[in-house]
Amino acid sequence: MVKIDTIELPDSPLLLAPMEDVSDPPFRAVCKDQGADLMYTEFISSEGLIRDAIKSRKKLDIFDYERPVGIQIFGGDEDSLAMAAKIVDVTNPDLLDINFGCPVKKVALKGAGAGVLKDVDLMVRLTDAVVKATKLPVTVKTRLGWDDNTKNIEEVAERLQDVGIKALAIHGRTRSQMYKGEADWTLIEKVKNNPRIQIPIFGNGDIDSPQKAKLYKQRYGVDGIMIGRAAIGYPWIFREIKHFVQTGEELAPPTLEERVEVCKKHLIKSVEWKGPIVGIFEMRRHYANYLRGLPNIKEFRGRLVTLMETEEVIEVLDELYNYYKGFEIERTPIELINYHEKCPV
Q: How far is it, in rounded angstroms, from Cα 256 to Cα 322?
């Protein structure tokens, strides 16, 4: 068992990473169905919460079936983060997470997200302010450092633990890397093996298969693994990892019927939560992986990303199912969608 304060998670828990414009309630629902043990909201601007911005407030929506679930906030001002933490308290999530990892310019270059990695003293003050402002367990998501010359994650881990965080998730890249190159887990391992560190350490970056998840867990000794881009359009990654870790055998990939039904559920929940226009539009990023492995799928996919009525999308999905019915889908590598202007941390 892994404990974050009083929150009990199973051994080797799998966490769904907070991803901007991805980790919304509809997406979290299908990931929970497939075995995600702990999930986080999209990151929420502390300034937006204080201004009562509609988009920021809506991201606070959580549901009992998601628990345990954490709300993630970001910002570069102590007072604003503390005030945002008090607002989050009212929504009663299981924990509150601080984003010190988002690398995109509009966040990092304004002194928030990964931008705070350039000033560890500020990071500590911001974290301390949040810990003191909330009754919730506070966790942090961050990166190895700002660039290759400032990989300060070992110092960061110790100092954030000292001010009261209850867990730390580390993405194995620097801010300057964005999502390029291979994630380096060796520094994550050093943090985990530091005798001063008593809180759970979760590793994140490039986990796109059950085999890799098991290997990295064993090799680097982390308490759990956080999955981000590999879950987009493929929530089955969670159950596949769990099955492989427990049995050493690959689980059969989802059937065509299951793919279509889960895609429909995701679509319907997206429309219910966001409205018909935004809900349908924002589903488009998920279709490629939901339908991955089907031959000559381009025509169907092209239709799916142009339709604007829920019923029409469902009709095309039903047509697709009937067309490919009986086809045995081969396992194909999961595509790690490259976000340079989005922010899965």
A: 10
Cα–Cα distance between 89 and 154 in angstroms, integer?
29
Cβ neighbour number for residue 16 with a 10 Å cutoff: 27
Q: What DSSP state is assigned to residue 23?
A: S
- Percent of the chain surpassing pLDDT 90: 69
Interacting residues of 64 by C-beta distance below 8 A, sequence separation 6+: none
Cα distance between residue 136 and residue 72, in whole Å: 12
Choosing from 31, 102, 263, 343, the catalytic residue is 102
Reduced to 3 states, what is the DSSP secondary structure of residue 134?
coil
8-state DSSP, 53: -
pLDDT tens, position by position, 152-196: 999 999 999 999 999 999 999 987 666 777 889 999 999 999 999
**pTM value > 0.85:** yes
Tokens 């018909």 -> residue: 276
CB 211 within 8 A of CB 243: no
Structural domains in the chain plus CATH codes: 2-247 (3.20.20.70), 256-324 (1.10.1200)
Q: E-strand spans in the chain?
A: 2-4, 7-9, 14-16, 38-45, 69-74, 95-100, 138-143, 167-171, 201-204, 224-227
With CA atoms as reference, report the closest residue to 17 among 142, 137, 197.
Answer: 142
Is-catalytic flag, 102?
Answer: yes
Cα 40 from chain centre: 6
55: amino acid identity, one letter: K
Cα–Cα distance, 45 to 63 (Å, whole number): 20
Cα R_g (the chain), whole angstroms: 20
**DSSP output for 173-213:** S-TTTTT-S----HHHHHHHH-TT--S-EEEES---SHHHH
| Per-residue exposure over 288-325, b if at least 16 CB sit within 10 Å of its own CB, e if not | bbbbbbbeebeebbebbeeeeebeebbebbeebbeebe
Separation between Cα atoms, residue 118 and residue 110, nearest integer Å: 12
- Rounded mean pLDDT, 56-64: 86
Cβ–Cβ under 8 Å, residues 79 and 129: yes
Which DSSP string do the residues of 97-123 spell out, in sequence order?
Answer: EEEE----HHHHTTTSGGGGGG-HHHH
